[in-house]
Amino acid sequence: MRASGRNRELHSSGQETPTATSPRHAPELANLARLRRALYRFLGAVFLPPQEDRHAQLLEAAQAMRAEQEAMAGFHWYLTWRRLLDRLTTEAPPSAGELATAYTSLFVVGPGGRPSCPLYASCYLDPDRSAAGWIPLLLEREYRAAGVALSPSLHEPPDHLSVELEYTAVLCEREAEAWELAPVDGLRRVLRRERHFLERFLGSWIPVFANQLVLYDTTGVYAAAAVACDALVRHDLDLLALLLDTLDEVHR
Asked: Which tens digits make up the pLDDT trace of 175-185?
């Protein structure tokens, strides 16, 4: 996924979520947005096919996150993330081959020829296919309105989980930049776009997806990742609502 504007490297944030929106808190909130960006991007990588090189990069990233876990320990979603990181940083984490077998059964072709837990929003938001194709079209319009284009190398439709997670990461980076550079109206627009996307799309089907993976995943990795994702989305919806309410109060 390609976004207009510049990209920056991650800098993790502190322990607690600041609740004020004064200039004094802007650096903390920018760092928090970049931490969330890194988490969404990591989750997006988890739900891509586990090729050998990608698997090695995922384990390396999990080790790096584990080393920096103090930055996450103050958040209520941390325990779900610790379970995921524990599974990936154990002395004998699942191999790429083990994950590939589970990936195929869970997400591609399961018992009876159908996957147990499809990776596409359409399968949850339109299970009867009564409005075929409308969810990918809505998502494609959402991405285009934000100036974001799907990477041709991904070879996945707009409603694939990894695509939605990568888009959310892009929005988090824009939020970080808005805390640093944008006027209040620009910041408010960024926060509203984030909240809209999580409410309308990602957050509307992740809970069901996570529940199904808890039932069917035998590796522990994919279920832990889905539960961690659900916890992060719930946190972010609460956070965004709080920030928008505070902005409205302070800048009437």
From this structure: 999 999 978 99
Asked if 21 and 243 touch (Cβ cutoff 8 Å), the reply is yes
Query: Considering the domain boundaries, does residue 12 fall inside one?
Result: no
Q: Model pTM?
A: 0.89
Residue 64 domain flag: yes
Find the DSSP H helices in 111-160: 122-125, 134-145
Q: Please, which residues have CB within 8 angstroms of residue 89's CB and are 6 or more apart in sequence? A: 59, 62, 63, 66
179: domain range? 2-6+22-250
Phi, psi angle pair for 148, to nearest 5°: -115, 135
Name the domain count of the chain: 1
Residue 139 in domain: yes
**Which H or E run contains 3?**
strand 2-3
Question: Are 31 and 14 in contact, with CB atoms under 8 Å apart?
Answer: yes
Percent helix / strand / coil, the chain, rounded to 5 = 70, 0, 30
CA 94 to CA 100: how far, in whole Å?
10
